[in-house]
Amino acid sequence: MNEKLKLTIFCVFVPLIVLAGIVLFTDRAYAFISLCVAVAALVPMFYRFEKNRHPAARVVLLSVMTALSVAGRFVFAWLPHFKPVTAIVIICGIYLGYECGFICGAFSALISNFYFGQGPWTPFQMLAWGLIGLVAGLLANKFEKSLMLLVGFGFISGGFYSVILDIWTTLWWDGSFNATRFWANILSALPVTAIYCVSNVVFLLILARPLGKKIKRVCKKYDI
What would the pLDDT profile of 10-45 be if each residue is shown by its tens digit? Predict the structure, then answer.
């Protein structure tokens, strides 16, 4: 199947999702459509990663970073909302590239939710963490040079993740986007969001430089 045909299929698929949601889920159309579009949004990066050839060492490093992210969420399960997941995803994106950052973020959510609970929120978590890893990779040069920018991005990422999940919560509760409920969700979640933002800063300050040095050393050794 050539690239143009694949792109055409993908572009046609999303409008079909919207149409199916309107016809089949009249009272929950927004929730169904947003869920399916979130899943569809993951496809291009997964496809790009699968299509490109990656050295075995890079794949191993990506697997290790994803495992660390998942393990970190398990280890800190006793401490609500204080998790190293975002920090590790950001580090992965910076030192292994934006593709790996996206994959690490997406799979961190998918794999860890086998323990924390899978649900229609999972694709939104995958998309949110994936996008954070992707942006970290795209801005890697700036973040490597400035610790202040890095921790600032980590703090903002906590708010971004929370907003994405609040969008989903609003759509699921009302079956449509209710702006009043959306802002109420954001305001009620502020204490949780604040803890999450601070945890990102703390873990980045602790992990970014030492873990980054080790990743760079492995990349240099194996010519990644």
Answer: 566 655 665 666 566 555 555 666 666 666 667 777
State how far the Cα of 100 lies from the Cα of 89, in Å rounded to an integer: 9
Contact 132, 102 (CB under 8 A): no
pTM: 0.82
CATH number of 53-221: 1.10.1760.20
65-102 burial by CB neighbour count: b if 16+ within 10 A, else e? bbebbbebbeebeeeebebbbbbbbbbbbbbbbbbbbb
Cα gap 200→86, rounded to integer Å = 6
Domain definitions of the chain by residue range: 53-221
Which residues are CB-neighbours of 102 under 8 A, at least 6 positions away?
45, 49, 93, 130, 131, 133, 134, 137
